[in-house]
Fold this sequence. Notes:
Its main location: secreted. The protein is α+β, with helices and mostly antiparallel strands. The chain is built from 3 helices and 10 strands.
Amino acid sequence: MMKLCPHxxxxxxxxxxxxxxxxLSTVLLLLLPLVSAQTYHWGPCPNPxxxxxxxLEQYLGRWYxxxxxxxxxxxxxxxxxxxxxxSDGTIRVLNSQFxxxxxxxxxxxxxxxxxxxxxxxxxxxxxFAPYGSxxxxxxxxxxxxxxxxxxxxFRIFRFEFAWVLGRSRFMPAETLSYAKGLxxxxxxxxxxxxxxxxxxCKDN
Length: 204
């Protein structure tokens, strides 16, 4: 097997530290293609406040994406998510977008990982990958949801996602301003946030 850092010996503490640095550098190089399409910052994930007394049954149904931090898996327009409870108690997640002249749909699963904090969900779209965080920072259930997700790598740097969702394709400016202000208040950098195209979209 090829050694990633053959020039570093592991016999001393200093050498072991250099080995760790070299391995981290290698991981960063491998992740560069992902980094270019995501939002990342140095340091571990923050711990923002989430919606108190979250009521899942009121949250179910269709939400339209209004704005987001860039994500490699969301390149189209007309992006929406639909949530429904399955018979086994898990939550079916249907995400759709219009991209390259066609509608693409992906189905995933969401779970409430800790009943004491029901607004902190885990969402997965593959049996082979762990759940990603889906934290609902605030929602009124009828017009607005602000969602945050973060994954850190060795607590050295983190990938961040954030979404402002609405029950309709277009959101009043004052509501959007409130949502973005909340993200800023929680220490989340929204300078890279982009609007999602919802003009001319057809409801399924």
